[in-house]
Amino acid sequence: MFRRSVPILLHPAFLDLVVAERVVCLTSYVEINREIYERQRSLSDRKRQPTPAFRFASAFTPGELPPKAEGAYFSRLPSARVDGVLVQGEAIAENLSERYFRLRSYALLDLDDLTIRSGEKSDAAVWVCGIDHEGCLRPFYNAIAYETASKAHPMRSLRIAGAPPVLFLYQPFSGVPFSECSMTLRYNDALGFRANVDGWERPSTPEATDLLGHMTEALPSIALISGGGAIAPEEKNIVGIELRDASGERISRNATVYLEATGGYLPRRRVALTDGEGSFPVIALGLEPGDSFKIKAGFRNFSGVLDIPFTVV
What is the rounded distance in angstroms from the CA atom of residue 267 to the CA atom of residue 183? Predict the structure, then answer.
């Protein structure tokens, strides 16, 4: 597991990250000058508005999950713009004392949200959050699930949405708590960020800032341990595979691997791995010497993690 903070976010926003086992929330604050802060505080104190049908149950507290919403379908909104909350800089970070901020927005991911179905809560998930040109955070989503057809990297997915990425949360298996997942956070170096989880490292080499490589390092791979290669017509070949981490060590975890074939016959399209290892049969049905095909092994939304080639002899 790693937590990497990369200071390459151009938008001037302070980011506040709160991580729990099944909930993660990112909040953005933008800086305002003292005159605007005092004027808006004064106007807010004098205004007496009727109680709206939609409201938050309590005040926002930096460093904590946002309050629950009342009068809305979701008690925890997946995202919201909250322009009326003013904060002094020292309340969000020691280095921001004597400066003034407005809470701009937040994005919250709750795995118990009933609208997030099993297709998105899958192994090899990359939950992402971006920030738009107005400084508002976009809702979290599993970019791997959304880009199953195109296989676009999560960074590309967010760019298309017009929201450069600020957080990548890599969930290797659906049962792994967010608090135990690897993360990459892009932040503005002039303002910084705060998080309720520690272990953050700031990459010191150009290679370490390669966000494409972070995903490869964080997610499990599938390795061939037996089978493949030469096969006779109509012959059955038993293929053995296992899960491995970035260091090449086997991951002793139960999981389901999804299979696709470019030729031959697969009696099963899914194989259950026990303690990170499993096997499945492949039959060179209807093929002749000189033909070749391959079996693709991957996860529900991340196919082709491993290609297993066969040549009919």
Answer: 38
Q: Return the pLDDT at 152.
A: 82
At 203, list the tokens.
């990459």
- Token look-up 């109509």 returns 234
Distances in Å between the Cα of 143 and the Cα atoms of 89, 172, 267 are 33, 13, 30
Helix, strand, coil distribution of the chain in percent, nearest 5: 15, 40, 45
Between the CA of residue 245 and those of 181, 232, 253, what are the distances in Å? Answer: 13, 33, 11
To the nearest 10°, the Cα dihedral for 92, 134, 168, 13? -30
pLDDT tens-digit readout, 205-217: 766 667 888 999 9
* SS3 assignment, position 312: strand
Provide the whole-model pTM: 0.90
Q: How many helices (H) and strands (E) does the chain have?
A: 4, 22
At residue 113, what is the residue type?
Answer: D
Beta strand pairing call for 125-130 and 182-186: unpaired
Distance spanning both ends of the chain, measured CA to CA = 44
Q: Are 184 and 6 a contacting pair, CB within 8 Å?
A: yes
For residue 240 the two structure tokens come to 């053995």
Residues of the chain with pLDDT under 50: 48-51
CB 111 within 8 A of CB 160: no
Burial tier of 283 (Cβ tally within 10 Å: 0-12, 13-18, 19+): middle
Neighbouring CB atoms inside 10 A of 114's CB total 7
Taking only the tens place, the pLDDT of each residue in 20-78 is 999 999 999 999 999 888 888 877 655 544 445 567 878 889 999 998 887 766 777 88
Q: By C-alpha distance, which of 248, 247, 235, 255 is closest to 297?
A: 255
Which two three-digit tokens encode residue 80?
A: 């919201």
